[in-house]
Amino acid sequence: MARDLSGATSARRHSGLQGLCLAAAIALPFLLASLLTGGARLVATEGARTGFAGSATCASCHAPQAEAWRASDHARAMAAAAPRNVLGDFSGQTVTDGRHTATFLRDGDRVLIRTDGPGGIVADFPVSETFGVDPLQQYLVLFPDGRRQPLPWAWDSRPREEGGQRWFHLMPQEALRAGDPLHWTGRDQTWNFMCASCHTTGLERGYDVARDAYATRWTEHGVGCESCHGPGAAHVAWARGGAGTDVSGRGLAVALRDASGGAWRFHADDPRGIAHWDGPPRQTAAMQVETCAPCHARARPIVADPLPGARFLDTHAPMLLQRGEYQANGRIQGEVFEWGSFAQSRMQRAGVVCADCHDPHSGRLRAEGNAVCAQCHLPTRFDTAAHHHHPEGSPGAQCASCHMPASTYMGVDRRRDHAFSLPRPDVAAAVGAPDVCTSCHQGRSAGWAAERIVEWFGPRRRDDPHWALAIQAGRDGRPGADAALAAIATDRAHPAILRATAVSLLPMPPSQASAGAIGATLLDPEPLVRATALRALEGLDPRNRLHAVRFLSDEFRLVRIEAARALAPVPLEAMPAAARPAFQRAWEELLASERVAAERPEAQVNLAALLAARGDVTGAEAAYRAALARDPDNLAALVNLADFEARRGRPEAAEEALRRAVAAHPREAEPHFALALALARRGRTTEALAPLAAAAALRPDEPRYDYVRAIALNDLGRREEAVGVLRGNLARNPRHRESLIALATIERDRANFAEAERQAQAALALNPNDREAAALLQQLRGLRQRTGPLPR
């Protein structure tokens, strides 16, 4: 559940409900005949992996823990489709939501779903495994090429009185058809890549690049003991050999038990009523969180089939607080799971770990309701109406109601935000985020809620000015955002994920403020911040990226591969001789990190770009062809291939790729725009006008399309039309600097000096340090002095 491919997901993916496989792998060839009701029976692929002993072996010595685990969602995350594991009603009923239809059948011990499959053909698909249990259960179909695909119909396993015990479609608002990547048979729903590592133990994905198929294996269904504790064979050998066996650390691959002797305790002299850790530092605090993180974060794996016990940033690149996935105030928005919000929290910085609140074996809370918070927050201080200002026993009196707002995913799955943030209705309103107060007090405004907060706690809050305002300004590209983001990025009192997000939003080319922030964060003690600062160097000329050399041997893999990525276009001979071996090692780690997702066309596009940057034209071309072999209509592959072909002097091939992109994605603006630029570069400016107009019509909120169209019209001598396009563009996007400068320049050339000066003034107001705008304005004022004053 933790896979992520930055930039690879469709906007539709987050506009509705999806299967547990949030973004997945490639559509592979279908062999439908053997999947029909009368076809061959397909079975799970389960077998031993070196070093694994199995949960049953663990249970022989750890019975209480095993008993708690057996009833957990972890243990039941996946199971063979045996009658005892199937919760759904397969009695023959047919269900439709108006767009999709399915019939649920039973054939002896087998269960089948009749629905539209490959090519749109309706067939009976045998279920190979169940997938999850609470609050819904999905069902997998095994295809002959080794793919497992989750069917889009899920069983609502909640009690009937809560609306459960029914079938429902996970994406009812999407009229999905075979061939669509989000159709259940499509590449964006393949379990092997997207879901398998977090629903099985001891996974070996077994993707065969040459055959474009899978031979996936695992040691057991579900999240077993060794998913968290690591391979247990050495520990079993120690246990069976007795105390005299020469095995270090009792043979444990991952030691999670804290033996420091410390505890969370209240101090009588602390008026805040918040517990502190007493005793030696927790020995396994970081390991506990990083054991959970790979499956409870949106993250891109950077090594294949990692084993438990590795540091998170040695195996994964976590998603930052990206637009569409997190609100600007950090609240969860897309299906991002728990780590990203917990990483923002004061709890995480204080040393709280997952197991402080959750029993690691049952998965249940350590206590019910407010009692779980009372472990560290004194009830006489916090569990009172004087603090929460709601009637005792009411929903508003529950800590989680205000500090852990919930969002619903997959139709019925309520998940709580783990940032433990303070209610700030004023900030939520300022950044357009949901407000925890008015989500309960419906009909009330955010202003009303903000007034109540001021009444209760005063006009100033300890997190003023709130960082969300800077994040929103950075997302919107507002003037002054660079300085505000730089202040967040360099303030080590903020959590690493927030500071890294601020770095990622710094404008390029860098202003003085952003350049200083990037330089400072390159030396940050947090590896996530360092890695993000290195990624920011991609906005600089390759000659200015040699700062990355010192990070090629960083302690953390994520930092090393980002250093290599930044240095990709830098010739080896331009690097210090002593750094060249380190670059070669980090470069191989970088390529290997992209090949982890070799079945994804997006990963092949990334590989192609990296290889092209190093001058490996043959390798880059092969990677682009591999991307298109996996998805002939992949937009990123076609557009990037076109740029690659143009750069190597093949404009006809570039144009062909872009026309393919436009034909495959007529409702996407970017291929129209790219085609227009390609035509203009070949001197076919008149022909470029139509795709420019198409791009602007598809994305009126993207000002660069109409800006370029206006420049093209002006170049063709159609100045009046150019002015009209620019004025319309500025009416929709009044802060678009390039359009203001262009309009000022055209009006100057038409001798409309007063109007030109107005536009130049507006451009300079966006950024008083804009030298081009200042020079243009000075020129225009000189011209105005010779033509008379501005009219009133």
TrEMBL record:
Instruction: Mention one GO molecular function.
Output: oxidoreductase activity
Which segments constitute the Cytochrome c-552/4 domain? 57-83, 189-230
Origin species, per record, is: Neoroseomonas oryzicola
The protein's superkingdom reads Bacteria
Describe the location of the Doubled CXXCH motif domain by residue ranges: 354-378
Q: Which UniProt keywords apply?
A: Signal, TPR repeat
Record bears the keyword Membrane:
no
**Name listed for the protein in its UniProt record:** Tetratricopeptide repeat protein
The TPR repeats are at 601-634
